[in-house]
Amino acid sequence: MTQRSKIRTALRWLPGVIVFPALVVVILHYGSIEKFGELLRSARPEWLVPALAAQFATYGFAALSWHFVLQRAGEARPFRTLFRLGVAKLYTDQAVPTGGISGSVLVVKALERRGVPNHVAMAALLVGMVSFYGADVVAAAACLALLWLHDEASGALVALVTVFVLIEVAIPSSVLWAKVRAKGMVLPNWVKRLPGVEALFGAVAKAPNDLLRDPFLIGVTSACQLAIIGLDALTLWMTCFAIGVPIDLWVAFSAFAVGGIVAMIAPSPLGLGTFTAGTTGMLALLGMPMEAALSATVLLRGLTFWLPMLPGVWIAHHELNRL
After folding, report:
1. Among the four 62, 144, 148, 202, which has the fewest Cβ within 10 Å?
2. For residues 84-109, b (16+ Cβ closer than 10 Å) or e, as one string?
3. What is d(CA 315, CA 323) in angstroms, rounded to the nearest whole number?
4. Where are the alpha helices (DSSP H) in 73-192?
5. Per DSSP, which regions of 66-168 are E strands?
6. Distance between CA 298 and CA 30 in Å, rounded?
């Protein structure tokens, strides 16, 4: 079997890898869906409308980050196309929790199908990866600073954030190190047998360095990723108002950041178990009643995942089946 055939075989499995977790979670968390429906019916709509708008904006910022990279490389594509891919990316990042890599790979393949050169698409992936992890580190540091200012930074939280930051720095550093060494690196035979790995190393090596060394590009794409984090935290803040238990914005941001940290360190399908536990627990630690904290978190997950699940699954499946 040729290398190209191996890659195609691996790609045929990807739609199932993306769709299957969604089906499993829908079945296992049917109670959560029912709870989400109840919360929607009893929530105050004047807060749900801006919360939905904030979530809609996250897809725009995801598309905008790719737009900046492609425009800088002279390979601009229609924004509406990138917006669709933004929906698929944010869904795939949750369906296959790999710290943003799974969704980025999906977008790269979709861009290549639309005529974007492989080396430009790979450069976009690397820039996106650096900005994604950089934004996560900034958000974690901001969370820790806020908790410290309010005398809520326990030793356990400091240790949790430290482990998270080490992981977030290690992943992109390893990829960038591999890029530097990829041209002269001789891969072990067992690595070469893995579908797509040899081609991936070759593509990473060819990715232009000028985009990765462009401070403006790294800055604006990181700002887009920070905007997504901020909008998600803002959504949590508004869901608390929607259930009639208002909280300070810094509490919502800290709880959302801790939920993301826990989901990254202990990944689970769609992050529903670990993220929910981390966010709910943090809200409770910061003074919110436990039942209200759980309700706000479930409502947040409904707005960020359950509602966009159908278009996310369809777009991701559609893109992968056309590769």
Report:
1. 148
2. bbbbbbbbbbbbbbebbbbbbbbbbb
3. 13
4. 79-95, 101-113, 118-149, 155-182, 189-192
5. none
6. 12
From CA 218, how far away is CA 270, in angstroms rounded?
28
For residue 234, give both structure tokens: 């803002």
- For 115-140, letters b (16+ CB in 10 Å) and e give ebeebbbbbbbbbbbbbbbbbbbebb
Q: Whole-angstrom Cα distance, residue 107 to residue 319?
A: 9
Token code pair at residue 202: 């070759």
Residue 55 Cα to chain centre, angstroms: 13
Per residue of the chain (323 residues), give pLDDT as tens: 444 444 444 444 444 444 445 444 444 444 455 565 666 666 677 888 899 999 989 989 988 988 898 888 888 888 888 888 777 776 666 665 555 555 667 777 788 888 888 778 878 878 888 898 899 999 999 999 999 999 888 888 889 889 888 888 887 777 677 666 655 555 555 445 544 445 555 556 666 777 778 889 999 999 999 999 999 999 999 999 988 888 999 999 999 999 988 888 876 655 556 788 889 889 989 998 888 888 888 889 888 877 777 676 667 666 666 65
Q: Residue 44 and residue 48: Cα distance in Å, rounded? A: 7
- Which token pair is 16? 């199932």
Look up residue 144 and give its two tokens: 């820790």
Neighbouring residues of 84: CB distance < 8 A, sequence distance ≥ 6 = 315
Residue 165 burial by CB count (10 A; 0-12/13-18/19+): exposed, middle or buried? Answer: middle
Helix axes 307-321, 101-113, angle to 10 degrees: 50
Report the distance separating Cα 147 and Cα 91, nearest Å. Answer: 30
Contacts for 249 with CB less than 8 Å, ≥ 6 apart:
233, 234, 237
